[in-house]
Specification:
Elements (H helix, E strand, L loop, with lengths): L1 E9 L4 E4 L2 E5 H9 L4 H6 L1 H14 L3 E7 L2 E13 L3 E2 L3 E2 L11 E7 L8 H13 L10 E6 L1 E6 L4 E4 L2 E5 L2 E11 L16
Antiparallel strand pairs: 1-2, 1-13, 3-5, 3-11, 4-5, 4-10, 5-8, 6-7, 8-9, 10-13, 11-12
Helix pairs in contact: 1-3
Length: 200
């Protein structure tokens, strides 16, 4: 079964591919600090990310960021932007909950400060709770936005870290594109909710 592959291109022309998701901001900073194979990760596993993430969330400040999805541009006081080729994020929650791995599209979920509430700790914690609840394609309010497209440009006012499939890969600005059905994988013949089911 062919599935899509995401491609992150930096402004210097270098590129990295991903299968699951790519993100910018707070969570990518956590990945950078812990490292893909760091001692903390090996000892504490997922708890290392949750603990570090909560610590970053308490101290987080938003960054003014321009995000363009298929030509539609918007500015966000951004904490995190997640660009998903599939639904599940970190094995914990469905952030890009409408994503299909073979539809030629990427799903973009952004978490931003709105007015003054999102800049204070209770507002940031509320965003964290909403992230854990998932289904963000149906909950586009209170600092959460959701979009779909084949080309995503993320350009913050100041550089932000970028991670792909749990590995730190660099800093913004970046352009993310999709390579439709570029990878063939073996799957059970049963219907799969992560795929359109269309076979070329």
């Amino acid at each position: 079964m062919p599935v899509d592959v995401g491609r992150v291109t930096f402004d210097d022309g270098t590129a990295r591919r991903f299968l699951l998701m790519c993100s910018v901001g707070l969570d990518a900073e956590v990945v950078r600090r812990i490292g893909g194979g760091g001692l903390r990760k090996r000892i504490f596993g997922r708890a290392a990310y949750i603990g570090a993430g909560l610590g970053r969330l308490v101290r987080a400040a938003p960054t003014l960021t321009g995000i363009e999805v298929d030509g539609a541009y918007a500015e966000h006081d951004l904490y995190v932007a997640v660009v998903g080729n599939t639904r599940l994020y970190g094995g914990i929650t469905e952030l890009t909950s409408a994503a299909l791995a073979d539809d030629g599209q990427l799903d973009v979920a952004t978490f931003s400060a709105r007015r003054f509430a999102g800049r204070r700790l209770p507002g940031r914690l509320a965003l964290g709770v909403r992230a854990l609840r998932g289904r963000l394609d149906q909950r586009r309010r209170g600092g959460v936005d959701y979009a779909r497209g084949a080309v995503v440009r993320i350009a913050p006012q100041t550089r932000l870290p970028v991670q792909a499939d749990g590995e730190y890969i660099g800093e913004t600005p970046i352009t993310i594109t999709v390579e439709p059905r570029a990878l063939h994988v073996l799957l059970a013949p049963d219907p799969n909710p992560l795929l359109t089911g269309e076979v070329e």
